[in-house]
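[User] Once you have settled down, look closely at the record that follows, and write a paragraph about the fold.
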Amino acid sequence: MHRLLLLAALALSACKDDDVADDSAVDLDRDGDGYAEPEDCDDDDPTVHPEAEERCDGVDQDCDGEADEDLTRPFYPDLDRDGFGVDSPVTLACAAPPLFAEVSGDCDDADPAVNPDATEVCNGLDDDCDGTVDGPDAADALTWHPDMDGDGYGDPTQSVVSCAAPGGWVTDDRDCDDADPTLNPDTLWYRDADGDGHGLASDAAASCLQPSGFVATAEDCDDADPAVNPDATEVCNGLDDDCDGATDGPDAIDPSTWYADADGDGYGDPDAATLACDAPAGHIADASDCDDADPAVNPGAAEVCNGLDDDCDGATDGPDAIDPSTWYADDDGDGYGDPDDSALACDAPAGAVADATDCDDDDAAVNPGATEVCNGLDDDCDGATDGPNAADAGTWYADDDGDGYGDPDDATLACDAPTGAVADDQDCDDDDATQNPDTLWYTDADGDGFGDPAAVTQTCERPANARRNSRDCDDTDASVSPNGVEVCNGVDDDCDGAVDGVDAEDSATWYTDDDGDGFGDPSASTAACTQPSGAVSDDTDCDDTDPAVNPDATEVCNSLDDDCDGLVDADDPDVSPSSGSWYADTDGDGYGDPDDPSACGGSGYVADDTDCDDNVAVMNPGEPEVCDGLDNDCDGTIDGLSGCNTTALADADAILYTSSAWVELGTSVAGLGDVDGDGYGDLLVGTMGTYRFLLGPVTGAVDTDTDYDAYLYQSGSGRSRSITGPGDLDGDGLPDMAFGEHDVVLWDESTPGIVYVVTRVPSGRTRTVDAQFRGENTGDYVGYSVAGAGDVDGNGVDDLLIGAPEYLANQGAAYLVLGPVTGMTLSDADGFIEGDNNSDYLGQHVTTAGDVDGDGLSEILVFAPSNDDAGSGAGAGYLFHGPVTGSFMASDADTTFWGATGDRLTHGSAGDINGDGYSDVLIGIPSYDSPTADIGGVAVFYGPSLGASVDANAAADVVSGEAGRWGAGDLVISGEDADGDGYDDILTRAWYAAPDGGYYIAYQYAGPVSGAASLADATARYIGIPYVGSENPDSMDWAGDVDGDGYMDVIIGAPNYSDVAEVAGAGFLFLGAP
């Protein structure tokens, strides 16, 4: 408006006569803000004028003569940057300058821990700047109580709070009488159970106040008997009645009399008595010893011949002495006694002697001192009548060889000739009946061991160079004898009467040649030094009756072995060619074996040569192809029909069903092994919170509502997401079972998840378990996965592995419980593995990895499907080598298997895929991209050496899915050699398989794996009904040998199976076979 008025004024002035004077001044508005000087204090800046809004920038925008009025604030120096400044100096500014704060009150600007917002602690500082150092508001200040009696305990009725103790004050507030130092919590009171006013020192209680039934004294020695105490009277009763430390002491009022037993023989001296309750040392109740200085003399001693009254019966050496001498009658007075006439006495009776060797006490000439003679008597009583010591005995010589001549070195003196003895002593060898004075000896002049029958000598001793045989036929030649070797030399070398006989070692073998073709019959031979008539040295004629048959003949088709090579006609490659070619038809199907031709043909041969297996009649070009594991039509493809290796779930050997809707039987399945030890594998099938246990064998249709061996359930509400046969967890030699309920609402309304273990053979409907493991925090999802870990610590008992994928902020965790398993809180687990990052979900799958490194200990494998370290949603698998004890982060793993972006590695297993004795790790990669995108697969990594970091997608050996985007490998199970070939096999699954409208497919693939393999070559494919239906494999496991035939079986769960009832679910058992 001001600018319009100005323009109008200028226009009017231009119209005036130049002669008219302008006496008015015009204000110019240079910056066009509607104000001119002097109202505008800066007419070069349109933002500055009287109506402008003042800004905090050091400029007077509203031209009131003041810059930044009412816009600045005070700021305080804050050198320690703790948000509080010191009170001065104050700086006014629009915004806080560097190292200034808007709030003051800091009492130490050099220490950021000291400011008005700090917590006061006992440290010698005024932390909260309230003007008090270590004030009563200190977070760690203590409460103190007065201790007036100095016993270390304070008065609870008085207290102060301070960092330091006031003088004579303590922190303990348990004194019940602060004026009496003997009364405090340490004061001991003694139980007076018998109420006799005296307490027992061994039963004390510390208390400030006297407890009921307790007293201050502790002299009672028996608090169960009121009659026993320091005030009682001592009597002889086996008690210390008056508690003076002496049981039945000398002050007892009813003592007994005891007698000294100085010699310790158990008998007392009647002249040495004393009074006491119990026998004093060296005293007894008996008083019958007759000599207390001799322990061998007492009423209990045996009387012996020693001149004493040993047994105190008044008789010295009495007739009852135990060691009397035996004396023998000597009726004939020869000084030798009769052993049959004796008496016992300490001293000899009249007419008796100590000797008992007389054999005839009626004849004084017969006794051991007499001389034996040949008279028919035993004169010297040596037991031999006319014995060899008879003074007039003859000499006899042993004739052991019975040749009538005695051995001069084996003589015997006797009255009569002993058996086998003679009076002659001329035998020179009494062990040889052929050598005696009548023996004939033959000269062996050539020393060959054989004598000359013409040179003989009779004598007992062998003459020099003589033999007892006379079989040498030439005693001038040592090489000629019965032991000589016959050779072709014109001599009878072996003295058998034949010169150059048939036994000559260098004789030739000659064979009869009856057909005269120059070849001999090998079955008709003779040995001779010279060739017999009609014989030849050759033995290769196979028919000596036909001169046309011999090794030099030509093989022709005549049903004969013409050339004697063992092959007849067409069987002989040397056969002379004839018209046409023929091929063996061993299986008789009319098609010949191209590898077995014949020129002659005949029975068993055909003109065709197109058979691909001439040992199997149903394999030939004319046979229709069937699913039997054979190439029936010889087109080079085994079972070349769609579905030959495919089995529908409905065709299972056993179907485990329920008639109840929405039970979801088969949510989880597990082969447990032989739980009851009967030789058959046993099964566990899970539902929405129940578990059906079935003992093998299992066949046909089984109603698990009634035909179970045990029906296990718990009071909580949850699903059996994971069940397992974990091996032998309690060391009893039989496998056990475990099941996890991750989302169960427990009895206390919490939801941490829980795992149950059963180590016995359950029966009936039962909720009894042998161990349980509850999660540490609500929402941990403990039991989402549970598996046997194998023997991780090497103690011979299997261990248990538990996953909790939502532990803390979904980091996830895995717990290892070492066997024997008895139950514990998971916070006390032997091993603990925590996910590295929030939302890793570690523990969504856990499993044993077997013994990868060959040290005898099992390894464990845990997965974190949402780990992003290798890419968004890549996932990771972590391998920990046994033993595993203590706490670990996932990054502490011995080997980490990394997925690629989007892989979400979730599942894996282990087994000896290449049969080298080391366990191998299998990683499922549902988004594996070779040979086509998202075909999925199972990657194999071989023990024992895997490295610290492994790219799961870089495995050399991978079993990929059948077709693109089938996502194979989302579930992987191994560790069993189902076909018995020495290589472990693989169970896996494809979630998105879609032939013929969409199926879920479970696969059984036989190890080993080499290079880029395909599930199209799986040994078995288990298929449900199209996706729109409900019969699809959702869980699976090796079932063990359920039917006991020695082959591994497979169990598959389909929880949405609805053929019996809506979403009832079912389990399908497929029995293994050769």
Notes: The chain has two helices and 61 strands. Residues 646-1070 form a domain with the Methylamine Dehydrogenase; Chain H fold (CATH 2.130.10.130).
